[in-house]
What does this fold into?
Amino acid sequence: MSFTESRPDEVSEAPRALGVPLAELVGITKSFGALRANDSIDLAVAPGEVHALLGENGAGKSTLTRILFGLSQPDSGEILIDGRLTRIASPADARAAGIGMVTQEFSLVGTMTVTENLMLAGVGLGRISRAAARSRVLEAAARLGVTIDADAVVETLSVGERQRVEIVKALFHNCRLLILDEPTAVLVPQDVEILFDSIRRLRADGLGVIFISHKLHEVVAIADRVSILRRGRIVASLPAAGLSPRRIAALMVGAEAIIPDLAEPTEASSDPALDALSTSIGLASSDLPDAATDAPARSSGPVPAPAQTAPAQPAPAQPALRMSKLTLAGPARALLDEVSLTVRSGEIVGIAGVSGNGQTELVNVLCGVTATTSGTVHVGDADITERTVTERLAAGLGRLTEDRRGSVALSLSVAQNLVLEDLNRFRRGPFLDRRRIRAHVADLIERFDIRADPNDPIRSLSGGNMQKVLLARAIDRKPRALVASQPTRGLDVGSCEYVYSQLRALKRAGTGVLLISEDLDELLGLADRIVVIFSGRLIGEVPAHTASRQELGLLMTGHVANPVPPDERAGVTA
Amino acid sequence: MDFPLIAVLAATLTIATPLVWAGLGAIINERAGILNLGIEGTMYAGAFVGFLTASASGSATLGLLAAIIAGALAGSLMGLLTVTLGVNQHVAGIGTTLLLIGACDFSNRILFSAGSQAVTAKFDRLFAGTGFFAQYPMTYLAFLVAAPALWWVLRSSGFGLRLRAVGENPEAADAAGIPVAGTRYTALVLGGALMGTGGAFLTLSLLGSFTLDIVSGRGWICIALIIFGRWKVWPVVAGALLFGFADALQLQLAITPQFGAVPNELLIAFPYLVVIGALAIWGRGVRYPGAYLVPYRRA
Amino acid sequence: MKILLRARDSRWLAPAAVVGAVLLTLLLTAGPIRLAGANPLAAYERYLVTPLMSLTGLGDVLLASTPLIFTGLAVAIAFRVGYFNIGAEGQFLVGTVAATLPALYLSELPGLIALPLALGCGALGGAAWAFLPAWLKRHARIDEVVTTLLLNPVALLLVQGLLNGPWRNSETGFPDSDRFDAGYTLPALVDGSRVHWGLVIALLLVLAVGIVLAFTPLGLRLKAAGQSPDAARFSGIPVATLKWRCALASGAIAGLGGASQVLGVQHQLTASVSNGYGYTGVVVATLGALAAGGVLLVALLLGDIAVGAQNASIVLHVPTQMGTIVSSTLLLTVVAFLAARRYRLVLRRRPPRTQAPRPRAPQPQAPRPRSTQPRGPASTLGQER
It folds into this structure.
């Protein structure tokens, strides 16, 4: 699949129908127990309008879109399509009303072709006509401004291509209102450009688009109108033109009370209150376009970003974790390309990057889940490249992976999980020493503040508690090196803070920490230096105390700004 | 030595017939994501119920019909266990097989006191005396109607598309408005009916009577065929023919004087070993349906 | 009406489900019993109670349970590690063949040497029969279910082939082997009873497997490998190796069961030596919750039913196959009820948005800062969502 050469005309001023909105939500309320996920929300999308929906995690965006797409029913409120009251009880109803949705998790059948996937919704039992469907697929792709191989088997396509297939699927079903739920989260920068071109074409075509994102600069770039959700309510709905990212950010975290007039632009940088606020959500005034509100899940209010650490002492400590020319071959290209990096004792090295650029693979290689194609890994002086997981642990490697639920044996208890990697330490003769295990587990539960009974099945624990179990298991061994990947993803504020404090404590205790995160605030707050991974290569390094968000942002999209130190140089892009 | 090639090939088709019927049923089940280890028992039930009905009514056609219904019922039992309740499919299948075989043997004992080998109404071969083409109607139906029909259904019908979607990615199927549970039930009922037909062939065409252990592992053979046939109709049919040929060959060898010294049991075991060998050769790195063995629950 | 996943298992639900399953089994099997012309209540008494009321009956129950303990254990340890060995039937049969080998060709050996030798051969034979599927699984990733299943009829053919050929009885000419010499007889536990030392071996195995599963690091590793293979691999547990070893051990236990049966009960190899014990092992293991103690209890229960079925066939003329019907129906109803207890029916209400299994607290993602929560001893359990 490729995309057409022809770029759509600049349609920044799309035709705005002044009449009936395409879709209108009136007084939508939805509660889960005591939590009001949506609180009498009013929202209208006009034809030819890109309507951005912004808000922190848990603000109610996905609840709202699920209701609009028929995946969830509101407690009260109405949905009007073309001005007519419409009941949307299922995705089929939504499709019939002309609503399409593309989420981060694609609902495509991997073993089927693009055409077959598109035919799936509404297919009967009898004969199907591939040829007719195929030409409609191509037609829809042309409307989107992309070329699509209608006969390609979906699982052979890249993520960006699959997303295009999803959007084409929506058009294929005559969708007039397209909901895009964080569409850029899974995309590489080039694909983001293609996506934005497509959205502009759809807008010119008269479609309504609901665009959900955390990334303020994207919203500013593509949206006609911005609605901001906070704690289940729409706190502002404004034209995008002339809106500064900083104002949006302020609204998202709840500062509208101190902004006199929302509609009028204020001199942002002269407002000390706002500056303070921006800082508190991790915005520096110099780098607004990259405002990092795509922070980990923070369900309530502003979160103090981890405090900036003082520059590390230059005295070179012992290397704790040393990667040398790590390479992992993939089906098409190298997933890891000569990655070389040394993490010293008492140092936190951050790895920044857009998701899908090799982070998961790197973690898997370090943890012993995947075997490398070439290159070596040392923990301290021990070469662990070919070692088993158990040997790695014995060599002093600690692991905290992004897939928390995949790191614990879900069917075992908290206590069993806590000792699962250290069973040989807790035996008396051939038997498990239950008394010592009990004492050890009680001690860990106390020290790491795990809110659970030792005998609880671990699957019943919250994300934060599960992470504490994993932290306890990894840290209790006093690792020389800790690989921590997305350690706060999906955690609430308290748990995030807890993880940060533990990582800092480890650093003080002399562990070398490799911190892989998509959250720049986390990296800037914790790391001593930050390297950037792009397309499987480390393409740049910056000390954290001088790093600017813009510089990192550029690197993360593959632009090399400053050369990498020679010993760390690893396949620098041109 | 005069090797009766035509006779062996004709026997190959005949022996492969029940495997084709039941194998097609198993394809439908597994394409929907369900491993039906009830297949052995379902074939057994088809054989017994077909025989029972035919001998009671004097009509082989009625017997076949009853076998089809019995198979469909066995399929719905699997549906209740694996689709609705989400029971482990291995356990549900083995349990179903044990139950059905036990129930048939039980009824057999009650209805026909031990030893009585009632001969039933049975189908006759078509084109008798034409050698290779002298086959039972159900053989012709299997190769010329059922297999092409299922091939077409999987490839060019909406039902086939639904089946594949449900077995590969039920979440996506659900999002596309396809009833996942309904499709799986349909697959199990249809598949069970085909397995019952396969079993009925043994009593209503081949033997004309019912004996204990009449299926003797043919169901398990089908499960193996599906794997190295990669869930595709024609490779599975080819696998059935391979088994059929191996079995026909050993039957021929058993009456060939030069092979008199070879134990009969070794010859009987030969086709099973051929299938295991085929599995070892062609069963490597096969790709199972995405939702194989996984019950679907809406998130 | 909607079927929803239950938030969390209540304590009383599992026992209640088992009771419900037993009642349903009785109800379902009443039909065929009537069909056979007997009174269901009288038949149930025959099946369950009568065998236990006399010393002979008790002995028969123990005798009938012995092979089931072996095959149940064999299946249980394989299933536990996630290796679906459905070939215990074949492994049991090859165990009988392997135990017969020394009995026929080294028939003069004294019991002290002969018995361990024959039992060891049986275990080896079972493991050998389990070897091919396990090897194919490990090195070619070929599904063990199919290969273990396919080898069952082959094993039966092996037995029949030997009995019709080289091992045909030299006196009678029947397809049974010669009777074993005295050295190859597992002695009776009590004089005059048919219960033999095989039962003791089975009980020792139950004890050993139970201890390993419950009290050793290996037991915990097996559990993790079987129930969360990916996490187990992540934690350094060699899942494939464990599966391989359990597959062979499973075959060895089934084979040992075969040896015990042929040395303790038959005293000669016959084609009907197995009687479906391997398949019933799946029932025993599943109903016994893959635990050693559970296997023992269920094997005793099914032994009871099997003896009762013999009894009922003589006295009430209900065919013995009723035993199979009862035990397989019990299997299906129990797994069905245990599965059903995880769901609850909700009438005419849309499901709330459900997330991954989320115990206790019905509302998702209730945001509350944990650090401010009081944390008394009573609140450590159950306050987290």
